[in-house]
Amino acid sequence: MHSNASTVEEYLGELPEERRVAIETVRQVILKNLPKGYEEVMNWGMITYQVPLETYPDTYNKKPLMYAALAAQKNHMAVYLTAIYMNEKASQEFEEAYLATGKRYDVGKSCVRFRELADLPLELIGKSIASLRVSEFVDRVNDARSGRRSRGS
Q1: Predicted TM-score of the model (pTM)
Q2: Range of the domain at 86
Q3: Inside any domain, residue 150
Q4: 20, 28 contact by CB (below 8 A)
Q5: CATH number, domain at 23?
Q6: How crowded is residue 153: how many other Cβ atoms within 10 Å of its Cβ?
Q7: What angle do the packed helices 17-33 and 122-130 form, to 10 degrees?
Q8: In 58-146, alpha helices (H)
Q9: Which residues are within 8 A (CB) of 53 and not within 5 positions of it... i.e. 6 or more apart?
Q10: Half-sphere exposure of 57 (CA within 13 A, CB side)
Q11: Which of 75, 105, 119, 137 is the most exposed place for a label (fewest CB within 10 A)?
């Protein structure tokens, strides 16, 4: 489900109540844990948490760097955690911590899929969101662009 909503409130208003409640709950976890410097906007048809272009304008596509996102898709909802998947160690630690919760681990290239709120380990999502300040995320992006694989935390 791609949304053409221009504001987060408009996006949330388009959702069926059960999905809206789930997305709003995950959104609150993200906002509570989001380091200063990221902004919440609608981008790519999703609620996006990104590095403003004023902070980092040198992107390959002239769009802000997406740190995380939240979306209701056709068959599931998803939390996109770009930074987790840019770093082998962080990705492995995230997977181990997720599996330790006993919840079904359903991931894509850069997202965690869930059908209902009870399927998502909210504490782990919050911890993951809080894990990188803007400057650290930008450093990882620059390392990736220069061909250096970030293996550290």
Answers
A1: 0.90
A2: 8-145
A3: no
A4: no
A5: 3.90.1150.200
A6: 10
A7: 40
A8: 88-100, 122-130, 134-145
A9: 59, 62, 63, 64
A10: 1
A11: 75
